[in-house]
Amino acid sequence: MTAPSETAEVGGFEYVFPAIRGIQAGHEYFVTMCPLRIIPRLFLFDEEELPPEMRAQRTLNKNRVPEIARYIVDNPDSYIFSALTASVNAEVRFDPIAGEAGPAARVGTLTIPMSATFVINDGQHRRAAIQHAIAENPELGNETIAIVMFIDVGLNRCQQMFADLNRHAIRPAPSIGVLYDHRDPMADLTRRVVAANAFLRDVTDRENTSLAQRSRKLFTLSALHTANSALLDGLVSDDSADPVAMAADYWGLVAERFPLWQQVHRSEVTAGEVRRDFISTHSIVLHALGRIGNVIVTTTNDRAEWSSQLEPLSSIDWHRSNPLWEGRATSGGNVSKSRRNVDLTTAYIRSVLGLEIPADEARAEKAFTRGDKQ
């Protein structure tokens, strides 16, 4: 199949797309491929000043566009985009390759007048990012993206299509994002750290972000990813140390200071009970331990010294019901993960370990102790 072309016709011009014809819910639609350079010309944003009820899409969130464009430009050999879904308000003509029936009758060319109005039902941020990416790297304009086109459906149907397409959209859980992300070096390090530590391999859920009561896992991969990012901050580029071995050793020493973690590992108590009654397995504590670990591992390479510095962890009362945690790590008994709570939890653990408290955590601690809970 060839790319869309512009061919002269009486009274104007037209687009000719290679296409496959299909039927969905009794309506004819077409699947085609279009060069990226054509996308900004087909889909124009002229609805932003209209009231919501007169638009077929939400307004563009311009803050998302640079990130998506950067993804394309930085990964020209491996980026991937799903199809755009669009509605076309025009009389179109489909010419099959051959015959009136059978497979060949579903493959042909779709001719659309250039006066047609194209409305994106799904993919407006991809469209805007494509325009930005081509401006930075014009060679991308020759690549193609799939488009699913519905014909002459009207505003009401366009709005309903947008609602239906987004009704069941579910963002993948952060943990499975870490598991499958092979671009992010820290995601790769986290996977390798878990693989290198027998305890973490056994008690880390690699797919879910919220652990069910009956789950026998203590941690989520996404929580460990956040903790590892704090632990290894500024250390990944250090050629003198293996960050995977360093992190695996550190978390192994931390785990030794939590007898309940070990009991879960040995199947002596259930993970659900520990997660219910204690805060030590929650992401806020792991994040705090990652921050603290960054100081410990950069101070010395001596694993025995790490162990000595971490020893006081076993003296902390990690019960969720401990009044110490209310307002610091919990709110009404529920664990809170705000930046302020992370600062306060980290500051307290540092004080128990006899470590210096940095300025930002010290400010949060001062506000907390004087009763400023906001």
List the helices and strands and how they pair.
Elements: E1 5-9, E2 12-24, E3 27-35, H1 39-42, H2 65-74, E4 84-89, E5 93-96, E6 107-113, E7 117-122, H3 124-136, E8 144-151, H4 154-167, H5 174-180, H6 185-196, H7 198-203, E9 204-205, E10 219-220, H8 221-231, H9 243-256, H10 259-265, H11 271-277, H12 283-299, H13 303-310, E11 330-331, E12 334-335, H14 339-353, H15 359-369
Parallel strand pairs: 4-8, 9-10
Antiparallel strand pairs: 1-2, 2-3, 2-6, 3-8, 4-7, 5-6, 11-12
Helix pairs in contact: 2-3, 5-8, 6-8, 6-9, 8-12, 9-13, 12-14, 14-15
Describe the structure.
By secondary structure, this protein is of the alpha+beta class. The protein folds into 2 domains: 163 residues, no CATH class; 196 residues, no CATH class. 42% of the residues lie in helices and 18% in strands. It contains 15 helices and 12 strands. Strands 1, 2, 3, 4, 5, 6, 7 and 8 form an 8-stranded mixed β-sheet that branches. The protein has a two-stranded parallel sheet with strand order 9-10. Helix 2 crosses helix 3 and helix 8 packs parallel to helix 12. The longest helix has 17 residues. The radius of gyration is 28 Å and the shape is elongated. The termini are far apart. About 2% of the residues have low confidence.
